[in-house]
Amino acid sequence: MSAQTPDSDSFTPNIAGESVAFRDSGEESLAPSSHTDGDSGFGSRVRSAVAWRWGTQVAAQIITWTSTILVVRLLDPSDYGLFAMSQVVITALAFLNGQSFATSIVQTDRIDERRVAQVFGMLLLANGVLAITQFLSAPYAAAYFGEPMVADLLRVQAIIFLTIPFIALPSEWMARQLQFRRQGQVNITAAIVGAVLALLLAWLGYGVWALVYAPIAMFMTRAIGLTLASGLRVKPIFDPRGAWDMLTFGGTLTLCQLFWIIQSQSDIVIAGRLLSTYDLGLYSEALFLTLIVTGRFIPPINEVALAAYSELHRAKKPLGPYFLRTARMVMTVSAPIYIGLALTSGPAILTLFGDKWAGMIPIVGGLALVMPAFAMQLICSPVTNAMGRPRVYLFTSICGAIIMPSAYIWGVNGGFFEGDTGALGLVHAWWVAAPLLLIITLMMTLPRIGVPAWALLRELAPIALACGAMTAAVLTVQHMIPLQMPILNLALSAGVGAAAYAATFWFGFRPLVRETWVMLRKPGAAAA
Fold first, then answer.
1. Among candidate residues 267, 285, 317, the one with its CA nearest the CA of residue 527
2. How many Å apart are CA 34 and CA 527, to the nearest integer?
């Protein structure tokens, strides 16, 4: 990206969130900056950012999961089917919400008050138009799905767009400075508000409306909390002149989001006309469960990674070694979770959701098998975006928008395996499309960051071996000790699998364990 034009009214909030004016060069003064704190200070800040952003995300998700499990037992699959239909429309419009323009604040070399105000103006305009559009188009969406109630759901959920400007701007501003502690505190508060409200409304018999009002309350809580936490006070400017570089970067990411939405929502769009609300509810909840890691835990990692990669790139440092560490960290956590879920999908669903959700078991087991490939694909875009090369992400997004819907159409009509019907056809479409998209993404990403394919395979080999040992141990114990009670089966299988995974690393790859421990205890040593 080219350097921005200096502006005389530059500013940055200090650690307490107050607005502080500084020199007229237009260049942002970060404290500490990547040029003055050294590798040790940078490693410490990244470690703190990951700890707060990811750690608070874990805490928030524990709260949300607890509420979700209880709410699922109170609602019916058809409620989740209706909710999934409305979410398709919201997500389809959300790519225009301006979040990508706010992300340009993180990546750009220099920033000033006028540019931040211009981003704020774009966010207000975009989301105001989206709220009106969703409200007016609600009857047409309901007609497409053949469910009149979808129109009412969409009209109420239009409120969400009005909160986006007050979430996107302060969160990206704090992300630029690797300040994630206050964001995490706000997210936990919002999770508590949403969880309590969802459970209360489900208990009182509100049905699908419990799934609608709870997210609205969470968005409003985040908007208020992040605005206060950031201390960012700017008046919106609706004149885009002087912000062409940010518009170009944000516009490219917006196109990426468009193709991402086509990729990620086409299964519901296709299945919504072919499956009943009951079957669609089973698939959507199975997808929600299996996307917990990729959809809840990887985005926080990517937020920190984009900010860290951007700072490293501005300091003219190679990003390849940092990407390999990120890949190893993400796969060390996500791969065993997904393989374990595939091995224990039966007792896990019966224990957590109850017998009426037993139809989810083969769907969850099938989706979990392919999710490690999906997780790996998701962590690639921040590194090229940080280098000012969003076109790489754009290309892979276009590929995903072609590959995934094509596979869904073929799979739901029984194109992959004989006897495929409905949701299982979608599962098998994932088996084919996700690995193919991962291969394309790595072919586009690795050469640009100077990482050969064998280096990535070398980093991931211990994880693959540990997952293999875990699989063998779990299958053996399930065969030798068949337990009828799902909760006992789940506990035994999970315990044996975790022990086998940990033992493989401890006895076979102890240097990696020690390196990880050093990284956690001594961030300066890890950075060196």
1. 317
2. 13
Query: What is the distance of C-alpha 262 from the center of its chain?
Result: 16
Per-residue pLDDT, 521: 52
Q: Two tokens at 49?
A: 């950012």
Crossing angle of helices 345-352/361-378, nearest 10°?
110
Q: How far is it, in rounded angstroms, from Cα 473 to Cα 154?
A: 47
User: Looking at the domain assignment, is residue 261 inside a domain?
Assistant: no
The half-sphere exposure of 232 on its side-chain side, counting CA atoms within 13 A, is 28
Backbone φ and ψ for 388, nearest 5 degrees, come out as 75, 30
Provide the domain count of the chain.
1
Question: Cβ distance 211 to 197 under 8 Å?
Answer: no
- Asked if residue 374 belongs to a domain, the reply is no
* Among 300, 230, 296, CA closest to 50: 300
Confidence at residue 418, expressed as pLDDT on a 0 to 100 scale:
60
**Interatomic CA distance for residues 437 and 456, integer angstroms:** 17
Cβ-count burial of 498 within 10 angstroms (0-12 exposed, 13-18 middle, 19+ buried)? middle
pLDDT at residue 33, as a whole number:
39
**List of residues 6+ apart from 284 with CB closer than 8 A:** 80, 81, 83, 84, 268
Which residue numbers in the chain have pLDDT < 50?
Answer: 1-37, 520, 522-528
Q: Contact at 8 Å (CB) between 243 and 26?
A: no
Task: Report if residue 147 sits inside a domain.
Answer: yes
Task: Spell out the SS3 assignment of 360-407.
Answer: HHHHHHHHHHHHHHHHHHHCCHHHHHHCCCHHHHHHHHHHHHHHHHHH
* Phi, psi at 20, each rounded to 5°: -125, 120
How many CB atoms are closer than 10 A to CB 427?
26
Cβ neighbours of residue 108 closer than 8 Å, sequence gap 6 or more: 1, 4, 115, 245, 246, 249
SS3 content of the chain, % helix, strand, coil (to 5): 80, 0, 20
- Rounded CA-CA distance 51/46 in Å is 8
Which tokens belong to 430?
A: 């994932």
Q: Which helix (H) or strand (E) holds 19?
A: strand 19-21
Orientation angle between helical segments 510-521 and 486-508, nearest 10 degrees: 100
Q: Which domain holds residue 131?
A: 1-242
**Would residue 1 count as lying in a domain?**
yes
Element (H, E) at 268: helix 244-274
pTM of the predicted protein model? 0.65
